[in-house]
């Protein structure tokens, strides 16, 4: 076969395979997942790649071809293949007749510093609209990792039309960016600078590189992530019960599961994790609490427990018929 015909054959392939980034590379092994299924850990997905919006970044990848979807929303610096549990989760979901959707936002990879929760919520709404109109979706469950949890909370507070399609939410590692950033020596001075820039009407201007060496960062987003009661400050241990209810209370009408890693490396040592997760679940209106002992931030060391918890919740809280969000 010549090069041209080989290329055409590849383009016409019905299935798309996305291999892992180096971050995900490991020796394949047999891993048990929820429901007793077994998956050969190749760190690969088969499914469909599609555009859900007009921006070049607005690309999504869906495994399975079902009318119920779990949408994964990663944290800062994340994109496709963000956590180790996604592959076994997709297999377990397939067994339950659910699709897994991973998607890129303007804030993905190094875009988080020039974006916002408002922008994330708008793009999430576009994705859900696509699934309703193009995939005839019967409903979605949102799974947030790290800062992705903030995106879910913000989105569900917007009352966007498509938010009615959300049948449940999983918050995995809902931890405070502010409390972690406060452990870094440069943070206090950078917060003062960001506040000054915002007061001068320069909130969308970029901060100095030392604010975040990994990504360009606007004064607004730095302030949002790092300042007390900034827009991203939803899960801090020093917020009062009233403040937590003000930030999270609207989630009480959405079935919610909180998966908290009891050895999360981004939670300062002084934080009482058990007390914090209890307060968060109460503020969320009685969310289901899952504490994973020795689990790290991304649960890469507790993949099986992560998948089992999510599948158990999704099977219980999944859509049992839902209203047309457009009516």
Quick overview:
The protein has helices at 3-11, 86-95, 117-134, 147-156, 177-181, 187-199, 219-226, 241-248, 273-283, 303-317; strands spanning 16-19, 30-32, 38-40, 44-51, 59-63, 68-73, 99-103, 139-145, 166-172, 256-261, 288-292.
Describe this protein with a few key phrases.
18% strand, 9-stranded mixed beta sheet, 2 domains, Rossmann fold, 10 helices, alpha/beta, two-stranded antiparallel sheet, 11 strands, 327 residues
Question: How would you explain this protein's 3D organization?
Answer:
- This protein has ten helices and eleven strands.
- The chain is of the alpha/beta class and 327 residues long.
- The protein has a nine-stranded mixed sheet, sandwiched between helices. Strands 2-3 form a two-stranded antiparallel sheet.
- The chain has two domains: 233 residues, Alpha/Beta hydrolase fold, catalytic domain (Rossmann fold), CATH 3.40.50.1820; 57 residues, no CATH class.
- The N terminus is likely disordered.
- Helix 3 crosses helix 4, helix 6 crosses helix 7 and helix 8 packs across helix 9.
- The protein starts with a helix and ends in a 10-residue tail after the last helix.
- Strand 2 and strand 3 form a beta hairpin.
- The protein is globular.
- It comes from Thalictrum thalictroides.
- This is Alpha/beta-Hydrolases superfamily protein.
- Pfam families: DUF1749.
């Amino acid at each position: 076969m010549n090069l041209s015909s080989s290329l055409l054959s590849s383009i016409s392939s019905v299935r798309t395979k996305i291999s892992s980034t180096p971050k995900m590379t490991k020796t394949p092994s047999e891993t048990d997942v929820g429901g007793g299924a077994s998956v050969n850990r190749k760190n690969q997905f088969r499914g469909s790649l599609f555009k859900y919006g007009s921006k070049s970044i607005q690309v999504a990848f869906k495994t399975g071809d079902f009318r119920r979807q779990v949408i994964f929303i990663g944290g800062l610096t994340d994109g496709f293949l963000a956590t180790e549990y996604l592959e076994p989760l997709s297999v377990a979901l397939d067994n339950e007749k659910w699709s897994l959707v991973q998607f890129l936002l303007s804030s993905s990879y190094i875009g988080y510093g020039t974006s916002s929760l408002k922008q994330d919520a708008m793009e999430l709404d576009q994705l859900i609209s696509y699934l309703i109109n193009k995939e005839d979706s019967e409903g979605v469950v949102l799974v947030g990792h790290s800062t992705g949890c903030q995106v879910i909370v913000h989105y569900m507070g917007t009352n966007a039309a498509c938010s009615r399609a959300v049948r449940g939410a999983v918050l995995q590692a809902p931890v405070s960016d502010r409390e972690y950033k406060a452990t870094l020596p440069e943070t206090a001075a950078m917060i003062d600078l960001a506040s000054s820039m915002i007061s001068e009407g320069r909130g969308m201007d970029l901060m100095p590189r030392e604010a975040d060496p990994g990504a360009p960062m606007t004064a607004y987003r730095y302030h949002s992530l790092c300042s007390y009661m900034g827009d991203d400050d939803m899960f801090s241990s020093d917020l009062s019960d009233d403040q937590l209810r003000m930030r999270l209370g609207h989630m009480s009408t959405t079935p919610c599961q909180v998966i908290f890693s009891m050895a999360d490396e981004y939670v300062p040592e002084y934080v009482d994790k058990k007390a914090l997760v209890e307060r968060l679940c109460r503020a969320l209106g009685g969310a289901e609490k899952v504490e994973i002992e020795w689990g790290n931030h991304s649960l890469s060391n507790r993949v099986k427990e992560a998948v089992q918890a999510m599948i158990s919740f999704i099977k219980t809280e999944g859509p049992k018929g839902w209203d047309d969000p457009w009516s």
